[in-house]
Amino acid sequence: MEAFEIHGVLLRLSSDEVSPIIWQALKDGSYEAKEARSVARAVRPGDRVLELGSGIGVITSVIARIPDVSVFAFEANPSTARLAERILEANGARNVRFSQGLLTAGDPDTHIFYVRRDLWMSSMDEKQGPYDSRIEIGSENIDAFIQQHDINVMVMDIEGAERDLLRDAKLKGVERIFVELHDHLYGLSGVRDITQALAEKGFAYDPRGSRGPCVLFAKDDGPREYDPDVD
User: Fold this and answer.
1) How many CB atoms sit inside 10 A of residue 8's CB?
2) What SUPFAM superfamilies would the database entry show (predicted)?
3) Most buried residue, 36, 70, 220, 224, by CB count within 10 Å?
């Protein structure tokens, strides 16, 4: 097992715990680099953050360093969730409540989840590519969870499932949504569906916190000062 840092997050992993592609991205610093640079524009001190698709917990740990935040993180893949719990513990992220499971817009149910060697390819989409195994995972209703825990920010990387979730969930009380779009799975029509659905809920595309496919949608909070660091 090796100990090293990425985006200021301490990792204790061995190369056989992830795929070669993931391992290389971790070692060269490219793993979730765009998200790590941009998420601080979406999350502010004191926020109550719901993170969906935490992966191995790198971005979760980045968010947890923001002052006075509370983080509720979910990862569907059981083996990935075990790695995330180890990384969160190594980084002293005591303000994170971590769960292995799913939040969906419908009634609680059981869903098929397709596990793939590259953890960022595991998803509920059978057509996304060859998979190693399929498992059943129970879900909770996302709107009930948001209300119960007074969530005001969402961070999402859920491999295409964001299209249906952001369309169907009410998202009452949420002020900002930072999401990685997966247009290779649903095309520009899917991006349009997400944008229109969120616009109907009062959200706008916020270029000040967006970078490529990592997009911030926010409710209007008035003008901000010019930030020279925004590309």
Assistant:
1) 11
2) S-adenosyl-L-methionine-dependent methyltransferases
3) 36
